[in-house]
């Protein structure tokens, strides 16, 4: 049946001719929505006219995580800068510099024998950086047999510094030929002149200077034991090299220290120990792990395994960027939730979303949370949270609003997938509570994933709190929620499914109420005033008397509202939009409805194996510290090595 569904998905996509030239995004490499040419063109036009998605061919979507788009030209979008002591450089003049176009350089300095080469070899292995040793380039050059090569050989033998233009042109050539943009340059600049010339000639300022600090006698012992046949590893030259280091190289370090760019590492320890420390040095080798960007005027930080592409969404909480996970080459959407502890509700909402997404991870109709991390300040001091999701192309709200014709098959496929995802949630004891078209993300094969679990809950919960916090879109709210009944459970999601289903059929919201009274009136006009028995079952006195005061509406004929829909579709809709939550179809009943027979396959509609529970949600009023600890715990589940990498001993405080 999974195969059958895939075929249906493909057939749906194939129902329309794909829009040539509009289907794929140039920078995201082929992501597209294959609902068809008219959707493509229509969406593009709609967004162009509303000044959204100004980056042209991406107009198909990328409303990741159900968010609004960033109405900002790409030139003001995403500018890569490097993290050095938490400072973010200002964007280069003249517009966007994509992450990959800016060279990032780390200088590695230290006396001869301090272990620069040894540490660089390991950093390169872990981070995939390109390592150049100025000394190695010079030694290769001296073998060229040219007069300049001979001069270099003589100078090295004497421990002298080779003229800047020779070393810099070797470095420049090596960088150009590498095709890379992130370099570790070891043993350079040797003096202030080297430094000034390099910055002038290449326009590159180092992001960071790693300084391996080691006592002279230790370095001397190491060099004498190095045994690599170097002409300068003899006591006489070693002493000269130390002097050159002190006289000429230390001023370079002083310069960079003033700029806050030096990470000083105690190198008089076993190599293994030094290596472990390097990445934890404040503002230090963290550079190797973190990149900072300016996105829409604020800082966006991520581990350097992610290559940012562009901003794709903006919401009340912050920004979403498309990125590539360079470990997998997978495109992802990274959402920054800024300053989450300034508002207790936001903090709880974030924790809840993370916990639920991790609990239901892996179901094909629920968005996958791939990663979770703090900014480079680490687990002890973070205020922002970054969530990495699989990237999707658009959402159902965008599709419904577009002129794309939607057949009953389309609607079936969307409703089926929504129910399939919802079955997993409900069997895991999770009620979404905020289902609406913009929270249903779609990709190019019409695959649907439920997102935005900020209001989702374990079914059994503190009712008062829920009522107080309930701020979701009114239009999809079940009557029992509107009437503040205590019985909030899975049926509220089923009501929302009915509303979404109707919106797919009618291409507009069925119950776009302006306020509570209007909302209830709209509902009753369509489904009829509740019966006396239904009213009697409403626990709240106030709600009962309000219902009793309402004018009487007979039950309308749903078919009238959706003349093109099949009788079976109407039957399912009727049974979802049922006033009494006890009589409303459950998710499993809805999946078994004849209208979905072509797609239904109980053996491929998994139930969640474990009920969801959250330690924080079990507490009526978790403190901010408890919520923070919960988020730290989740971050460490996604990144177990984090306690070593960021923030030092990162056990929850
Ligand atoms: N932390 C360390 N403890 C002991 N020996 C080391 C350490 N780091 C490097 N060495 C050894 O010292 C010598 C010099 O190290 P190297 O990395 O070549 O120094 P540099 O590149 O700074 O001149 C090498 O033989 C290396 O194996
Ligand atoms: O930018 C550089 C780097 C190296 N050297 C020369 O190359 C020698 C060896 O440098 P390397 O970094 O290979 O070894 P270290 O002296 O740090 O052990 C130095 O003494 C200098 O003579 C130089 O002139 N300019």
TrEMBL record:
<keyword id="KW-0547">Nucleotide-binding</keyword>
<keyword id="KW-0460">Magnesium</keyword>
<feature type="domain" description="Protein kinase">
    <location>
        <begin position="306"/>
        <end position="596"/>
    </location>
</feature>
<feature type="binding site">
    <location>
        <position position="139"/>
    </location>
    <ligand>
        <name>a ribonucleoside 5'-phosphate</name>
    </ligand>
</feature>
<dbReference type="InterPro" id="IPR006266">
    <property type="entry name" value="UMP_CMP_kinase"/>
</dbReference>
<dbReference type="GO" id="GO:0006207">
    <property type="term" value="P:'de novo' pyrimidine nucleobase biosynthetic process"/>
</dbReference>
<dbReference type="InterPro" id="IPR027417">
    <property type="entry name" value="P-loop_NTPase"/>
</dbReference>
<feature type="binding site">
    <location>
        <position position="269"/>
    </location>
    <ligand>
        <name>ATP</name>
    </ligand>
</feature>
<keyword id="KW-0665">Pyrimidine biosynthesis</keyword>
<dbReference type="InterPro" id="IPR011009">
    <property type="entry name" value="Kinase-like_dom_sf"/>
</dbReference>
<dbReference type="GO" id="GO:0005634">
    <property type="term" value="C:nucleus"/>
</dbReference>
<dbReference type="GO" id="GO:0005737">
    <property type="term" value="C:cytoplasm"/>
</dbReference>
<dbReference type="InterPro" id="IPR003527">
    <property type="entry name" value="MAP_kinase_CS"/>
</dbReference>
<dbReference type="Pfam" id="PF00406">
    <property type="entry name" value="ADK"/>
</dbReference>
<comment type="subunit">
    <text>Monomer.</text>
</comment>
<keyword id="KW-0418">Kinase</keyword>
<dbReference type="InterPro" id="IPR017441">
    <property type="entry name" value="Protein_kinase_ATP_BS"/>
</dbReference>
<dbReference type="GO" id="GO:0006221">
    <property type="term" value="P:pyrimidine nucleotide biosynthetic process"/>
</dbReference>
<keyword id="KW-0808">Transferase</keyword>
<feature type="binding site">
    <location>
        <begin position="160"/>
        <end position="162"/>
    </location>
    <ligand>
        <name>a ribonucleoside 5'-phosphate</name>
    </ligand>
</feature>
<feature type="binding site">
    <location>
        <position position="336"/>
    </location>
    <ligand>
        <name>ATP</name>
    </ligand>
</feature>
<feature type="binding site">
    <location>
        <begin position="113"/>
        <end position="118"/>
    </location>
    <ligand>
        <name>ATP</name>
    </ligand>
</feature>
<dbReference type="InterPro" id="IPR008271">
    <property type="entry name" value="Ser/Thr_kinase_AS"/>
</dbReference>
<feature type="binding site">
    <location>
        <begin position="187"/>
        <end position="190"/>
    </location>
    <ligand>
        <name>a ribonucleoside 5'-phosphate</name>
    </ligand>
</feature>
<dbReference type="GO" id="GO:0004707">
    <property type="term" value="F:MAP kinase activity"/>
</dbReference>
<comment type="similarity">
    <text>Belongs to the adenylate kinase family. UMP-CMP kinase subfamily.</text>
</comment>
<feature type="binding site">
    <location>
        <position position="241"/>
    </location>
    <ligand>
        <name>a ribonucleoside 5'-phosphate</name>
    </ligand>
</feature>
<dbReference type="GO" id="GO:0005524">
    <property type="term" value="F:ATP binding"/>
</dbReference>
<keyword id="KW-0539">Nucleus</keyword>
<dbReference type="InterPro" id="IPR000850">
    <property type="entry name" value="Adenylat/UMP-CMP_kin"/>
</dbReference>
<dbReference type="InterPro" id="IPR050117">
    <property type="entry name" value="MAPK"/>
</dbReference>
<feature type="binding site">
    <location>
        <position position="226"/>
    </location>
    <ligand>
        <name>ATP</name>
    </ligand>
</feature>
<dbReference type="GO" id="GO:0036430">
    <property type="term" value="F:CMP kinase activity"/>
</dbReference>
<dbReference type="InterPro" id="IPR033690">
    <property type="entry name" value="Adenylat_kinase_CS"/>
</dbReference>
<dbReference type="GO" id="GO:0036431">
    <property type="term" value="F:dCMP kinase activity"/>
</dbReference>
<comment type="function">
    <text>Catalyzes the phosphorylation of pyrimidine nucleoside monophosphates at the expense of ATP. Plays an important role in de novo pyrimidine nucleotide biosynthesis. Has preference for UMP and CMP as phosphate acceptors.</text>
</comment>
<keyword id="KW-0067">ATP-binding</keyword>
<keyword id="KW-0963">Cytoplasm</keyword>
<dbReference type="InterPro" id="IPR000719">
    <property type="entry name" value="Prot_kinase_dom"/>
</dbReference>
<dbReference type="GO" id="GO:0033862">
    <property type="term" value="F:UMP kinase activity"/>
</dbReference>
<comment type="similarity">
    <text>Belongs to the protein kinase superfamily. CMGC Ser/Thr protein kinase family. MAP kinase subfamily.</text>
</comment>
<keyword id="KW-0723">Serine/threonine-protein kinase</keyword>
């Amino acid at each position: 049946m999974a195969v059958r569904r895939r075929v249906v998905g493909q057939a749906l996509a194939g129902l329309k001719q794909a829009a040539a030239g509009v289907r794929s995004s140039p920078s995201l490499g082929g992501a597209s929505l294959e609902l068809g040419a008219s959707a493509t063109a229509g969406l593009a036009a709609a967004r162009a006219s509303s000044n959204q998605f100004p980056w042209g061919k991406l107009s198909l979507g990328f409303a990741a995580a159900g968010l609004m788009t960033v109405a900002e030209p790409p030139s003001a979008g995403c500018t890569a800068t490097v993290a050095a002591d938490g400072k973010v450089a200002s964007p280069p003049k003249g517009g966007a510099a994509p992450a990959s176009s800016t060279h990032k350089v780390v200088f590695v300095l230290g006396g001869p024998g301090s272990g620069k080469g040894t540490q660089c070899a390991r950093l390169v292995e872990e981070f995939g950086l390109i390592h150049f040793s100025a000394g190695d380039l010079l030694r290769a050059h001296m073998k060229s047999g040219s007069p300049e090569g001979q001069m270099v050989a003589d100078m090295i033998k004497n421990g002298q510094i080779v003229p800047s233009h020779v070393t810099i042109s070797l470095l420049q050539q090596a960088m150009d030929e590498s095709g890379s943009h992130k370099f570790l340059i070891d043993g350079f600049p040797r003096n202030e002149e080297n430094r000034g010339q390099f910055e002038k000639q290449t326009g590159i300022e180092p992001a960071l200077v790693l300084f391996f600090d080691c006592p002279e006698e230790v370095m001397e012992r190491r060099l004498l034991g190095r045994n690599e046949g170097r002409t300068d590893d003899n006591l006489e030259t070693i002493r000269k090299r130390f002097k050159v280091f002190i006289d000429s190289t230390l001023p370079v370090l002083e310069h960079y220290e003033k700029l806050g760019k030096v990470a000083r590492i105690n190198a008089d320890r076993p190599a293994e120990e030094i290596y472990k420390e390097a990445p934890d040095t404040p503002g230090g080798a963290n550079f190797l792990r973190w990149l900072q960007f300016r996105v829409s005027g604020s800082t966006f930080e991520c581990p350097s395994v992610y290559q940012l592409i562009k901003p794709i969404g903006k919401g009340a909480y912050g920004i979403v960027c498309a990125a590539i996970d360079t470990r997998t080459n997978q495109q992802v959407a990274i959402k920054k939730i800024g300053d989450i502890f300034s508002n207790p509700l936001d903090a709880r909402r974030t924790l809840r979303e993370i916990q639920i997404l991790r609990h239901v991870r892996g179901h094909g109709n629920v968005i996958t949370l791939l990663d979770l991390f703090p900014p480079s300040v680490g687990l002890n001091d973070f205020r922002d949270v970054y969530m990495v999701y699989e990237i999707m192309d658009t959402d159902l709200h965008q599709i419904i609003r577009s002129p794309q014709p939607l057949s009953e098959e389309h609607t079936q496929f969307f409703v089926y997938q929504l129910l399939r995802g919802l079955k997993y949630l409900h069997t895991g004891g999770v009620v979404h509570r905020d289902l609406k078209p913009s929270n249903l993300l779609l990709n190019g094969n019409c695959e649907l994933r439920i997102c935005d679990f900020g209001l989702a809950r374990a079914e059994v919960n503190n009712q008062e709190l829920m009522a107080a916090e309930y701020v979701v879109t009114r239009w999809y709210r079940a009557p029992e929620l509107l009437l503040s009944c205590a019985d909030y459970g899975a049926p509220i999601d089923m009501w929302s499914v009915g509303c979404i289903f109707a919106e797919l059929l009618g291409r507009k919201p069925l119950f776009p109420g302006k306020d509570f009274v209007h909302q209830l009136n709209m509902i009753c006009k369509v489904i009829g005033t509740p019966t006396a028995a239904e009213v009697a079952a409403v626990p709240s006195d106030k709600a009962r008397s309000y219902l009793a005061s309402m004018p009487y509406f007979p039950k309308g004929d749903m078919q009238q509202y959706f003349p093109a829909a099949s009788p079976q579709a109407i039957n399912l809709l009727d049974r979802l939009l049922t006033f009494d939550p006890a009589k409303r179809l459950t998710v499993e009943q809805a999946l078994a409805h004849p209208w979905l027979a072509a797609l239904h396959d109980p053996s491929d509609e998994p139930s969640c194996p474990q009920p969801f529970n959250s330690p924080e949600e079990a507490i009526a009023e978790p403190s901010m510290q408890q919520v923070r600890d919960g988020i730290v715990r989740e971050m460490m589940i996604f990144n177990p090595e984090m306690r070593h990498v960021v923030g030092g001993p990162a056990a929850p405080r």
